[in-house]
Amino acid sequence: MRVRSDAPPRRAQAPGEAGSCTGPADHCPPPDARAQPASPPLPSQSPRRGGEEPGREGRAADWDSQALPGAAVRRGEAMSALPGLRPEVRDSCASLGFMLLVVLLVGLARAGARKRLHRPAAHAFVSEFLGTLQLCCCTHELLLLSEQDSAHPTWTLTLVYFFSLVHGLTLAGTSSNPCSLMMQIALGGMAPEMGALRLLAQLASALGSRYCMRALWSLGLTRYHFGERIFDCRNPVQSDLPKAVMTEAICCFIFHSALLQFQEVRARLRVHLLAAVITFLAYAGGSLTGALFNPALALSLHFVCFDEAFSQFFTVYWLAPSVGILLMILMFSFLPPWLNHNQIITKKE
C-alpha cells in the first residue's frame, strides 16, 4: 500500500547551482561559497556588445593608432622632398653663373676691342657683334630657366628685369636690335652705310650664338643642358596670326617710344625705366609671342622654327616690329613738337 504525500516533488539542481555538488565532500566548496552570487563586472571590464561604440578613451586610442602612422608618412614624404630641391637650386645657380660669366667675358672683349681697334667701322662691327652675342646667349639661358620654372613667373620676371638692367649698363653704344637701327636711320641719327654694317654684325652674332650655346650646353653643366636642345623648334606663338602680329607691333612701338622719350633722363634712372618697360612687356605679351620685339633675337632663339614655318615667323618677328617702328616714327613726326625728336642721342662709350 502506497502512502500519498502532499509535498511537491523535488527539482533536480542544475550544475553550478548552490548545493549541486555531487562529488566527495573534500572536493566540494563550502555552502557559503557555493551560494554566493557572482559579482557584476566593472564598467571598464564590461564586454562590448555588437554594434556598441567604444568609449571616449577607446575612440581616442583608436584615433591615435590611425593618425600617428599617417603623420609619420607625411613627415617622411616631406623629408624625402627636401633633398629634391637641391638639384633645382644648383641648376639655377649654375645658369645664373653662366650668364654672369658671359657678361664678364663680353665686357673684357669690348674693352680690348676699344683699345686695339681704331677704325670706326671695325670698332662698330665688333661692338655690335659682341653686344648681340651677350644678349642672345643670356636670353637662351633665361628662356631655359623660365621653361623649367613656369609655375613661378615672378622669379622669371625678376630675372628679366635684372638682366635688362645688366644689358643696359654694359652694352652702352650698341643697339643689338635691327628695329633700333631702323629708327636711328629714319630719324637721321645714323648713316645708312653704318646701319647696314651694324645689321650685318647683329645677324652674324645671332646665328653664331646658337653654335656657342650648343657647345656650352653639350658640357652638361645642369640637368637641362644638352646640345640637341638647340635644334628643337619650340613654337612660342600661342595665338592666331593677327593677334600675334599686333602683339609684336605694339610691344615694339611702346619700347622704342620709351627709348626715344627717356633720352633726356639721367642715365642711371633711364636704365631702370627701360628695364621696367621691358619687364612689363614680357609680362603682358610673353604668353602670346614671347614679346621679343627684336628680329635678331628671334632669329637666334627660333631659327629652326623659321626654317619650318618661314612665312609665319617672318611676319610675326620681322614684319610686325618693322610696322611698329614705322608707326612710331610717323607719330613722332606729325604730332606736336614736344613729342618730336629729330635725332637719336646715343651714349658715348
From TrEMBL:
Coiled coil location: none
Family of this protein: Belongs to the MIP/aquaporin (TC 1.A.8) family. AQP11/AQP12 subfamily.
Example of a GO cellular component annotation carried by this entry: plasma membrane
Name assigned to this protein: Aquaporin-11
Organism encoding this protein: Octodon degus (Degu)
Highest classification ranks of the organism: Eukaryota, Metazoa, Chordata, Craniata, Vertebrata
Compartments (UniProt record): Cell membrane; Cytoplasmic vesicle membrane; Endoplasmic reticulum membrane
TM spans (from-to): 94-113, 155-174, 274-296, 316-339
Chain intervals for the UniProt region annotation (Disordered): 1-67
Ranges of biased composition (kind: Pro residues): 27-44
Annotated keywords: Cell membrane, Cytoplasmic vesicle, Disulfide bond, Endoplasmic reticulum, Membrane, Transmembrane, Transmembrane helix, Transport
